[in-house]
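Reminder to self: tokens first, then the designed residues, so the page reads top to bottom the way the pipeline ran.
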């Protein structure tokens, strides 16, 4: 029973229209689900991914009108997105610059070529070369050429002041493997510990930066809400039982309709989710028209007119 990689990452935007334009336009990702936060129906929940909404390709945003995040530890600090090859990274550097983003230089980090940048709200992103490992599903309507499109999520970096309690949960409870370390790019005195899941590789890694000198972060616009890890459908119930057996306080089983979830916080307070691969985003929409209309969870459908009346148009 193993986690098989990163499933999705959910971040926060206070400017959801601009967010929509940036991630579907500049970043060339497909909006595969246009919905609302199931716990706060006044807010959009947008899901950007590859053509088919593959598990592991999904970057999502809550539409929360909140102040900007305060950066610090006890937080998810950087999101990586995978692209295929050094040529793609060079293309992205030029493309981002042409679109008013000021990316950093392409560097080698932890053995992979990487390109750091931020969106307009300060969301910290990195494009990493994954050497074209695994499947890809380019979207034929993307403004980004197929060979340069984002292939999926890469390593997610979290910041903690103390590694020991987090390490215990990652290895003993979640079955991750500690495989290597490297110096943090912003402060060589801080060490980043790499944990891998399932088959390993760029889409199946969690990077844990140990930064005891930083103040605690505070969630807000431009920050990250939670990270989710992939669970094979057949193992979902067993993972729910495992969390309870180990004694980790958790949400219990939550049906998100496009996948099933379990939520809990690791010892430094960062919200983790375990999410099943299926049934997928096409369970309630035609695969050819994903994301073109607002889709609601079944229990919200009776309130559709009221919910839609409170949502501002994205286009």
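Designed residues (315 positions):
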């Amino acid at each position: 029973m193993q986690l098989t990689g990163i499933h999705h990452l959910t971040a926060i935007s206070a400017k959801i229209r601009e967010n929509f334009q940036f991630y579907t336009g500049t970043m060339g990702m497909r909006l595969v689900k246009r919905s609302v936060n199931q716990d706060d129906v006044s807010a959009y929940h947008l899901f950007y991914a590859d053509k088919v909404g593959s598990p592991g390709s999904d970057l999502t945003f809550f539409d929360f009108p909140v102040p900007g995040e305060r950066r610090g530890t006890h937080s998810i600090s950087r999101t990586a997105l995978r692209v295929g090859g050094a040529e793609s990274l060079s293309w992205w550097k030029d493309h981002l610059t042409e679109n008013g983003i000021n990316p950093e230089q392409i560097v080698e980090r932890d053995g992979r070529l990487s390109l750091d940048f931020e969106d307009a709200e300060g969301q910290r992103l990195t494009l990493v070369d994954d050497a074209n490992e695994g499947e890809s599903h380019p979207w034929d309507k993307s403004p980004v050429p197929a060979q340069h499109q984002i292939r999926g999520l890469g390593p997610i970096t979290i910041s903690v002041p103390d590694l020991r309690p987090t390490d215990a949960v990652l290895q003993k409870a979640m079955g991750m493997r500690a495989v290597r370390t490297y110096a943090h790019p912003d402060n060589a005195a801080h060490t980043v510990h790499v944990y891998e899941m399932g088959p390993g590789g760029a889409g199946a890694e969690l990077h844990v930066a140990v930064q005891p000198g930083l103040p605690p972060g505070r969630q807000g616009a431009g920050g990250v809400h939670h990270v989710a890890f992939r669970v094979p459908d057949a193992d979902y119930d067993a993972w729910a039982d495992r969390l309870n057996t180990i004694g980790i306080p958790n949400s219990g089983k939550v049906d998100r309709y496009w996948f099933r979830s379990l939520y809990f916080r690791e010892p430094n307070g960062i919200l983790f989710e375990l999410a099943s691969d299926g049934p997928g985003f096409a369970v309630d929409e035609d695969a050819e028209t994903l994301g073109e209309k607002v889709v609601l969870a079944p229990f919200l459908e009776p309130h559709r007119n009221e919910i839609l009346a409170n949502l501002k148009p994205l286009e």
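The chain has a mean pLDDT of 96.
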